[in-house]
């Protein structure tokens, strides 16, 4: 265990969050997504936009941790504090990117998870590297913070004059998006991403995370894909991702993996499809990988 002061630990965890956004942005090649070589299916953003967005959000990562560390009320009350600060962070992000939404979903999730970590640090029960039990405790507290979120946010939608994309998906198909993922304790991370990383921690980081991206794309409810192409397009991308993963082995060369993913990228660009929800979960996966000493 690495023994450091609580303030040093907050700084280190905050830096882990920033590094996770930067790692996800830099990972290449990612089908339909922005990376240093391709803007994917996006015409309004590029790699530089993601760097600017990450820098804008970075100061708030410490704020989220400190909100949790100082909180002594209910988990739901902490969520309200975090949501208010998260909205300020989103405004700074949009100011920096000139209105382009790069990290709205990631900011939401990092805000919740970092606040949960801060809350658990009150009892000084966490030190690096985190154990699997530490990680589960973080998800459990995040679940307590958000267990009423879906019901609260999606009530009375039929009376609203203007709906967000997420609200439309909920009314039309019952999809709960990132709110539902949070309220369930991030099952995509607990059941898919983190077991994947724990089994492969000695492998090449880049290859491991490209395979993990395919795994996430093949399994998660990705509202970005659904908003852009509808249910059929989302289901098709899930099938394509699963097929790509089956056609490769973890002994495949990085060159072979790149060739297949570049071709997949071109297919999604052609259809204007971007698995942004999977990208956010990939960044969170890298974050917990750092916390547990897996990467």
Automatic annotation (TrEMBL):
Residues annotated as transmembrane: none
Annotated catalysed reactions: 3'-dephospho-CoA + ATP = 2'-(5''-triphospho-alpha-D-ribosyl)-3'-dephospho-CoA + adenine
Enzyme class of the recorded protein, top EC level: transferase
GO molecular function: ATP binding; triphosphoribosyl-dephospho-CoA synthase activity
Keyword Transmembrane in record: no
GO BP annotations listed: prosthetic group biosynthetic process
UniProt EC number: 2.4.2.52
The organism's place on the tree of life at top rank: Bacteria
Keyword annotations from UniProtKB, A to Z: ATP-binding, Nucleotide-binding, Transferase
Pfam family, one: CitG
InterPro entries according to UniProt: CitG, TriPribosyl-deP-CoA_syn_CitG
Coiled coil (UniProt feature): none
Protein family per UniProt: Belongs to the CitG/MdcB family.
Stored NCBIfam families: citrate_citG
Protein name: Probable 2-(5''-triphosphoribosyl)-3'-dephosphocoenzyme-A synthase
Lineage: Bacteria, Bacillati, Bacillota, Bacilli, Lactobacillales
